[in-house]
Specification:
Strand order of the largest sheet of chain B: 1-2-5-4-3
Largest sheet of chain A: 3 strands, antiparallel
Shape of chain A: globular
Largest sheet of chain B: 5 strands, mixed
Strand content of chain B: 25-35%
Strand order of the largest sheet of chain A: 1-2-3
Number of helices of chain B: 3
Strand content of chain A: 5-15%
Order of helices and strands of chain B: HEEHEEEEHE
Order of helices and strands of chain A: HEEEHHHHHEEHHHHHHHHEEEHHHH
Distance between the termini of chain A: 24 Å
Shape of chain B: globular
Largest interface: A-B, 41 and 37 residues
Structural class of chain A: mainly alpha
Oligomer: heterodimer
């Protein structure tokens, strides 16, 4: 159905035709609807309260990030990656930086790799907390929302302490990190991680065995494993359908192979199963964070040594002529990776985030493509809610955990 | 990061055995294998890669396009394939001429290609033959031009 048909159908909202037969009613859900988590519009064809057809309409937040990347140097484009998925900016930073590092063939010091793991896992926790809170409030559980945002705030304070920003951190840079992490940051992480399991128990007390919650989520929005793979669905949605695919295990990056953690899966493939998977993932992420805290050396380089690609330290820049020249050249011209194409995938909170970079050997990326997990996962929405009641659409949108900034880019 | 030897990739070997016409070129870069497939063999190659029991590339991660303007053939369409069971990735690449950018759709093979192909149609103006619902997806329906083409400016008037 195209735009014009929708408008026509809206103008003639006859539910009963002269012959007495019923015909479906078309309802626009969004783009301004609180439970669409942004500016998603779903065109619903309804037969009474049953959804006959659901069609997501996207693009309201399209900002041309991929086009913009082509006009910036490799380092400058990092700031754009924050703004793709604004609930997990550090995951985007990581995906992009790893892709560029793969392109130039750069090895990153272990300390920087572990700090990257620590911070991206904290990002996963914050993102899942926002998802849990908003998903719960969509289905009528107000207090979970308030609790989740309380804990998220504590982790956001850590991001602010480490990088200077709560959200648009741009803390991962090509070759390592932007800054030496401030003293005592691990103590703050430890404090938050100590109280976290109790808080997760609190959410589970409120929801897991809650009869209303179970009634609204069990058996709703079912996606079979075969359908999920065919639709390219990844992340917790795929694992909720029983496929144990996690990029961190399948294609380890940033030393994830040195960490000990499980991939939570469920086989039911409904909204409730995905809820269980994501809550279990918060606990697993906490496990990884604790291991990372043990592994991070107290000192050592926080970025790679690569003259001409990585900016020299402040001291070197101020005291040596080569340092000054490199600093000047990196920030005025950028650096030139070899021509070629790379695809680097990471496990973002929403699934497989892939970054494809085509280089033509100049200072600017010739083409950058973000394989946004939200974009692909959202495509399965009609499968989740067709044939169900209109009230279930809200649960189905919540369970896909989309970020519209990432869908539209 | 040592690139693997080309002929050691199982997928490439199998493809050559199956039909040598399907492999126009093999590119190895940073440990990633790219198989350049002639346009007319794309869909049957895709079907083979999914159904062959020793390969099972059943998951299509992504489709993306690079505009090499003014070089002809102008467009490169890249398909990022993944075999979940075997933990292997493969990139298929087809080259598409600029004067008639038409590619056969792979939606019958991988349903997820639907939105990816719509996005490429929207931003690059490549038409996908046999696509069930080829419309703009990100840009407004009445938009003129294809923003990700290289002859489309980043800012200012077109």
């Amino acid at each position: 159905m195209n735009e014009r048909d929708v408008v026509e159908a809206m103008a003639t909202m006859t539910i009963e035709t002269p012959s007495g037969a019923t015909k479906p009613m078309v309802l626009n859900m969004g783009p301004q609807h609180p439970s669409t988590h942004g500016v998603l519009r779903v065109v619903l064809e309804l037969d009474g309260e049953t959804v006959v057809k659901a069609e997501p309409v996207i693009g309201y937040l399209h900002t041309g990030i991929e086009k913009n990347c082509e006009a910036k140097t490799y380092s400058q484009a990092i700031t754009l990656t924050d703004r793709i998925d604004y609930l997990a900016p550090l995951s985007n930073n990581l995906g992009y930086c790893l892709a560029v590092e793969k392109l130039i063939g750069l090895e990153i010091p272990k300390r920087a790799q572990y700090i990257r793991v620590l911070l991206t896992e904290l990002t996963r926790i914050t993102s899942h907390l926002v998802w849990l809170g908003t998903h719960a409030i969509d289905l009528g559980a107000m207090s979970v929302f308030l609790y989740c945002f309380r804990e998220r705030e504590e982790i956001m304070k850590i991001f602010e302490y480490v990088s200077g920003q709560r959200m648009m951190t741009s803390y991962f840079r090509i070759g390592g990190l932007a800054l030496e992490p401030p003293p005592g940051y691990l103590d703050r992480v430890r404090r938050v991680m100590e109280s976290l399991p109790g808080h997760i128990d609190e959410y589970e007390d409120l929801l897991t065995k809650n009869r209303i919650w179970m009634a609204r989520t069990q058996g709703v929005g079912i996606l079979t494993a075969a359908d999920a793979i065919a639709m390219g669905v990844s992340g917790p949605m795929l694992r909720g359908s029983g496929v144990a695919y996690d990029v961190r295990k399948a294609f380890p990056y940033s030393s994830y192979d040195e960490f000990d953690f499980e991939i939570p899966t469920q086989t039911a493939g409904d909204v409730y199963a995905r809820y269980l998977v994501r809550v279990a993932e918060i606990r697993e992420s906490r496990k990884i964070v604790r291991q990372a805290m043990e592994k991070i050396p107290a000192d050592g380089p926080f970025r790679a040594e690569a003259p001409g690609i990585i900016p020299p330290s402040r001291e070197e820049m101020k005291t040596s002529i080569e340092g000054l020249i490199y600093h000047f050249k990196i920030f005025t011209e950028g650096f030139t990776p070899p021509p070629g194409e790379v695809y680097q995938a990471i496990e973002s909170p929403r699934g497989e985030l892939g970054v494809f970079i085509a280089s033509d050997g100049s200072q600017k990326p010739y083409r950058v493509k973000f394989r946004a997990p939200s974009f692909v996962n959202l495509q399965s929405l009609p499968k989740l809610c067709e044939g169900r009641l209109i009230a279930d659409v809200v649960a189905c949108i919540g369970t896909t955990d989309i970020v519209l900034g990432e869908v539209d880019r | 990061m040592e690139p693997q030897a080309t002929e050691n990739s199982l997928a490439v070997r199998k493809l050559r055995e199956w039909d040598s016409r399907a492999v126009a070129q093999v590119i190895e870069f940073r440990g990633e294998t790219t198989v350049v497939v002639p346009l007319e063999h794309l869909v049957r190659t895709a079907e083979y890669l999914v159904t062959e029991p020793s390969l099972r590339f059943s998951f299509l991660s992504d489709i993306t396009t690079v505009d090499r303007y003014p070089i002809e053939p102008r467009f490169e369409v890249n398909y990022h394939l993944l075999s979940i069971e075997r933990r292997e990735r493969l990139r298929l690449k087809v080259r598409v001429p600029g004067n008639e950018p038409v590619v056969p759709s792979v939606t019958p093979v991988w349903p997820t290609a639907n939105w990816h192909e719509r996005e490429i149609f929207d931003l690059f103006g490549i038409r996908f033959q046999g696509h069930p619902d080829l419309r703009r997806i990100l840009m407004p329906e009445d938009w003129e031009g294809y923003p990700l083409r290289k002859d489309y400016p980043v800012e200012g008037y077109r």
